[in-house]
Amino acid sequence: MADKASDGDPPVSVLFVCLGNICRSTMAEAVFRSLTSGSSRITHVDSAGTGAYHTGDSPDPRTLSTLADNGIVDYNHAARKIQSADFTNFNYILAMDRHNLRDLQRMRQRVERPDGGSQLGKLMLFGDFGGRKGETVVDPYYGADNGFDIAYEQMVRLSEGFQREVLDSGEADRG
């Protein structure tokens, strides 16, 4: 990560996390990248899964189709499982639902050092940025195709909320 963003505010790196890293987290990553492409504060954006079910796979074709329908056509990603280093490499680690948040909290405990030597990224629900604390990003994987349109709308709203609450407010802490 860079030490400082060009405008003097602290840089921000974001990791989006769901279960398999082919639907929700990839869509969140692509939408967030698109909406924040002009921000000098964003230094790194990625996505991962808590499971390794789809490691190396491209995003679900319905995810890519929904992104393309909304003008995001330059997104490429290979699914990956979250790694211990991600907890120190990202300022914000945003889970799509409570189940993944609990899994991430357990993983984070294994990374934390008793002496507090490593500063770890802030772990929270992505839905907390939508105006309703604890909001879950519904998984469209097993649902109808319109579930991806609904997820897209949710990703835009949550990404805009993150932008307002973190980037525009000057907040960018770890913890």
Task: Give the topology, please.
Layout: E1 12-18, H1 24-35, E2 42-49, H2 61-69, H3 86-89, E3 92-95, H4 98-111, E4 122-125, H5 146-167
Parallel strand pairs: 1-2, 1-3, 3-4
Describe the structure in brief.
The chain has 175 residues and is of the alpha/beta class. The longest helix is centred in the C-terminal third of the chain and has 22 residues.
Number of helices: 5
- The helix fraction, in percent, is 25-40%
Rg value: 15 Å
Report mean pLDDT, rounded to a whole number: 90
Distance between the termini: 16 Å
Can you give a write-up of this model?
With 175 residues, the chain is an alpha/beta fold. The protein contains five helices and four strands; from the N terminus they run E-H-E-H-H-E-H-E-H. The chain has helices at residues 24-35, 61-69, 86-89, 98-111, 146-167; strands at 12-18, 42-49, 92-95, 122-125. Strands 2-1-3-4 form a four-stranded parallel beta sheet. Strand 3, helix 4 (98-111) and strand 4 form a beta-alpha-beta unit. Helix 1 (24-35) crosses helix 5 (146-167). The longest helix is centred in the C-terminal third of the chain and has 22 residues, at 146-167. The chain is globular and about 50 Å long.
